TrEMBL record:
SMART domains in UniProt: DEXDc, HELICc
Catalytic activity from the UniProt record: ATP + H2O = ADP + phosphate + H(+); Couples ATP hydrolysis with the unwinding of duplex DNA by translocating in the 3'-5' direction
Function of the protein: Plays a critical role in recombination and DNA repair. Helps process Holliday junction intermediates to mature products by catalyzing branch migration. Has replication fork regression activity, unwinds stalled or blocked replication forks to make a HJ that can be resolved. Has a DNA unwinding activity characteristic of a DNA helicase with 3'-5' polarity.
Name of the protein this chain belongs to: ATP-dependent DNA helicase RecG
Gene3D superfamilies according to UniProt: Nucleic acid-binding proteins, P-loop containing nucleotide triphosphate hydrolases
Amino acid sequence: MSINLQTPIDYLKGVGPNRADLLRTELGIHTYQDLINLFPNRYIDRTQFYKINQLQRHSAEVQIIGQITALREVAQKRGKRLVATFRDESGIMELVWFRGQKWIRESLKLNTDYVIFGKINWFNGLFSMPHPDLELAEDHKKSLRSSMQPIYPSTEKLSNKGITNKVISSVMQNLFLETKGEFVETLSDNVLKTQRLISKSDALLNIHFPKNSELLSKAEFRLKFEELFYIQLQLILKNLIHKSKIKGFVFEKVGDYFNTFFNDHLPFELTNAQKRVLKEIRHDFGSNAQMNRLLQGDVGSGKTIVAFMSMLIGLDNGFQCCLMAPTEILSVQHYNGLLELCNKLNISIEILTGSTKTSKRKEIHENLENGQLQLLIGTHALLEDKVKFKNLGLAIIDEQHRFGVAQRSKLWKKNTSPPHILVMTATPIPRTLAMSVYGDLDISIIDELPAGRQPIKTVHRYDNNRLKVFRFIRDEITKGRQVYVVYPLIQESEKMDYKDLMDGYESISRDFPTPEYQISIVHGKMKPEDKDYEMQRFVKGETNIMVATTVIEVGVNVPNASVMVIESAERFGLSQLHQLRGRVGRGSEQSYCILMTSHKLGENSKTRLQTMVNSSDGFEIAEVDLKLRGPGDIMGTQQSGVLNLKIANIVKDKAILQHARYCAQQLLKKDPSLSHSENRVILNTYRQLSKYINIWNYIS
Ligand code: ADP
Ligand code: MG
């Protein structure tokens, strides 16, 4: 009979109530199981022993055997410190404690062999080691400890309360003694064999007490694989269940709206990527399962037309469709872009935003409910309960990263059974991340820009070159082009940013005086109608320069704009810079992006700027972004739970993730309900895990 791993941690030898409380609050360790799954952050090599006379001033962490020959207290500014004289046959050094002195004083044995370990300082002509890790040499020999010593996650409170790394190691050791190191296997024989993984018990032993580095890496591989495997299994299963359970509206035919548009009004030849994605979407429409698809495509890759054509299929089948965008400006732009086409095709279309007048709003509500209105474009206003459709068949969310998960699910409820959902994003996230975060969505990718686009020339300029930059802008305006100048707006320092923006606007106005030059300004503090007015002046070409905050970041389309100047570019994140740059290069003219910064730049900022100058590939940029910021940050706090992995790392363990996903897919292909006896272990583990890590909550 093996020990129940759900046993509260209080019962483990060496833990006791106080420590148990601390382990719970500080590390979330409640049970034996939780403790086993506390994996070391890193390991240090303790095969090597130093002699005191071998120490170098730059030595990092060292291990020495010797004896304490004397103890004394030394008064200092605040309180006192405890200093021990420590010697081996080659020399003398000092050990120093600033805290916990009473306890140490009472427990230390003089003239007895100790193994000490820690960082050393050079102080007053002697080496000293503050707060050494120390252990009687005799115990050191006996302990299960191996050459690679694990360093566990800790917190300040834990170490202040004496729960040091050594204490954790020793309770871990007790746990292994008590359980005899025998743990239930959590992967099937088949998976173990085909993936050449070591057993669970071996993996756990070697992750905590590695015998050598080879076994350690095998243990790491096994545990990372397992972690990623079960996440993928969960995501894929969820997707499968979803497809089998949630019936979607079947859009049987491609009818007149689509065909007329395709034959008579399509303004350009679709790219192959656009065609492929449309095919994927049409396949979903015909499949009698509800579509839940993420469309990723770089800025300017032409997602809007794909969205529109998908909506035409919905209309062809007698359903209403809606398109939701995160900002008023973007909604208006979508509306204006589609209005003309809809008029030609005799489709009724309306726009609903926060600034829609009450009378108009009422009319829209009515026509939605009686079915006269076919297409609705708008902002969050679409989500209001008052907005009821007669028969919504397809809901599209543009720039979905701007919306929360809750909003996506609100759209689901806009019909008796959920409409097809297409979410679009121009902030591409690397495939590996998409797999683990959006594993429950099907993913389509537009990986090709429309033909004839010239790559945008991107340069980095320092503030003191501003005059040259202005001269360049003037030349472009003379050629008939338009220019964006964007200022950062970051919540915490809104006032400052606003001032920067206004100062910038003034200085630009001085250098580009009326009536020769016309300047638009758009920022978040303006009323929507004023914003729209200014925006429209720029769209129509009445103004030459658009001074703005990041409100223009998403989606705005002015093909004649050829220069994007980004002020204080070091303050923007990579994906934001890339988005902003995507506002230009939409016409046939050569476009430019100028990143302005001060001379003071951190390493991280330099990398971001360099990446922008060197690359125009959104996916490549996203990879760098992921490395710089880490996955949690990119997805926002909402989704970071998914990425809160115990041992694997989405960035570093990309290959294992892909492998684990493939393995999970293959398994489910053969045994979708995990009912084969050989998969019993996997089913059990899966059920067990679903109780704890419910990643479903985070992403559905
Ligand atoms: P995004 O994917 O960033 O939303 P848009 O849908 O706004 O991109 O498209 C950017 C521009 O490219 C628009 O002016 C659009 O009309 C144009 N466009 C889209 N597809 C094509 C194509 N296949 N050929 C030429 N131009 C296209
Ligand atoms: Mg767009």
